[in-house]
Amino acid sequence: MEKLRLRFAPSPTGALHIGGVRTALYNYLLAKKHGGAFILRIEDTDQARFVPGAEAYIKEALEWFGLVPDEGPGYGGDHGPYRQSERKEQYRKYTTQLIESGRAYYAFDTPEELAAQREKEPNFKYDGRVRMQMKNSLTLSGEEVERALSEGVSYVIRLKAPENETVNFQDIVRGQVAFDSNELDDKVLLKADGMPTYHMANVVDDYLMEITHVIRGEEWLSSTAHHVLLYRSLGWESQMPAFAHLPLILRPDGKGKLSKRDGARFGFPVFPLAWKGKTEEDSFTGFREYGFLPDAAINFLALLGWNPGTEQELFSLDELVEAFSVERINKSGTRFDIDKAKWFNQQYIIKADAGDLLEKVRPIIAAHGYEPGDDFLLGFIGLMQERAITLDDFWENGYFFFEKPREYDTKVIQKRWDPERKGLFDELADQLDTLENYTADQIKAQTEAFINDKGLKFGEVLPMLRLGAAGTMKGPAIFEMMELLGKEETSRRLRQAFAFFDQIKLESN
Known about the structure:
Layout: E1 5-8, H1 18-33, E2 37-40, H2 54-65, H3 88-100, E3 104-107, H4 111-120, H5 142-150, E4 156-159, E5 166-171, E6 175-180, E7 188-190, H6 198-208, E8 213-217, H7 224-233, E9 242-246, E10 249-250, H8 262-266, H9 287-290, H10 294-302, H11 317-323, E11 334-335, H12 338-351, H13 354-366, H14 374-384, H15 393-396, H16 410-416, H17 422-433, H18 440-454, H19 458-470, H20 478-485, H21 487-508
Parallel strand pairs: 1-2, 8-9, 10-11
Antiparallel strand pairs: 3-4, 4-7, 5-6
C-alpha cells in the first residue's frame, strides 16, 4: 500500500468545534494505522472571516488531545507552506490552466448585477442555464475580455460545469455517489481579491501535498462533484484521493446538527478548549475547562460515529489506531450524549494513576486558595477518584479536605444525635487523640474497641464521625479521611461538631 497522507484543514475563523476535532481524529487514526502522515493545513483564504488567535487555538487543541501533526505550520514538512494564504501563486497558475483549456472562464458580473438577478429569481444559480446571459468571457468578445483585464475590471474565475454528464465517485462511507452535471452551478474558483475559494484551493493543495484520503463532514458531500470535475479538468483524475464523508453530530434531542450555540442551550461544552470572543455570546467553555481528561474526550468522540465491531468501549489512543477502520464509520447521524461523555471521563479518572492526576488537580485546588504538598494531594486524589466525574468534582465533592465543613446535614443530626451521649463522643475523641500512629487501621481499631466497650452500635457512631469531619454523609471511607486530615485537624473538627450537634438538637426540641 502506498504511504497514506491525510490532512485536517480547518479555517481559522474562531474556536474549533468538537465536530472538527472528530474529523481530525479520524484522519489521524487512519494515517497512523498505516504508518502514514497526519497533516495540518490552515485554510485561511477567506480573509474577511479570519480571526486572530484561531490558528494557535487549533494547534493547542490538537496537541491537548495528543493529535500532533507530522506536518503543518510550525511542525515542518516538505510540502509547505501549509497556510493557503501563502500559496496564492499556485492557485493562479492552475486557474490560468483551466481558463486556457476552456474548463473555466472570467466572470465580470458586479455584485450589484448578481444581487439584481437574485432579486428577480430567488433561487438563482449561476450555471449552464444562465451563463450565456451573463457578463463573462463566454459572452464577451476576445477584445472586450482583454480590455476588461487590462483596465483592471474586477472579475472572478468560475468553473465551467459540463452539461449532460454524470459525475460520480466512490465514497468509502456512503458507497457510489452520482450527480447530474446539469444540477451543478459554475462555482467561483478565484475570487475578486485574488484568493481562491475552498473548492479550488483544497483540490490544488490535496494534489500538490499528495493527499491520499479526504475524510471530512457530510456537509461537503454535495461539493465533491465540483472537486471531481476539477481533478478531471486539471488532468489529475488518477491522483484523486479517496473520499469519506462523516455523518453529522446531532443535538441531544436528535433535532438537527449540533451547533456552537447548543453548548449554552444544553449546558455542556461543544468546543475542546475555552474560547474568549469579543462578546459573551461568542465566548465558550471547553472540554478541558469543564474538567475532562483528553483521553476520555478522544475515546468519546471516536465512538461518536464509528463502531469498532466489538463490545469494547474504553480505548487508549494507540488502541484506537489499531482498531480503526473507515468502513465501520456510520452513515447516519449520531446524537451527542453528554452523559455518556461524562461516563467515559469518570472511567478514565478512576483508572488513572494518582500521580498522573496530580498536576491536573493541583490548579483546581489552588484556584480556591490552597496549595497542599504533594503527599497530601496524592492521598486526597486517591480517596476521591471514584467520586469524581469531572476534574472539578475533586473540589466540589471534597472541599472539606482543605477547609472545615461549611454546613452539616441537619436531617442526619435530628435523626441520629442524642445529646445524652455527647459525653461518650467527647470520650471517643479523647481516646483517638492518644493514638501515636494516627492511621486508618489504628483509628478503626480504637473506634471499634470503644463501640464494643460502651455497648453502642456502629450505626450510632460512624455517621456522627463522618458528619463531624466532613459535614456530609457522602465521601470516602471515614477512617482514611481522618488519617489524611491528621489528628489535630480531625480532633478540632469533631469537638466543634459535637457541640454544634448538641445545640441544633436542643433548639429543635
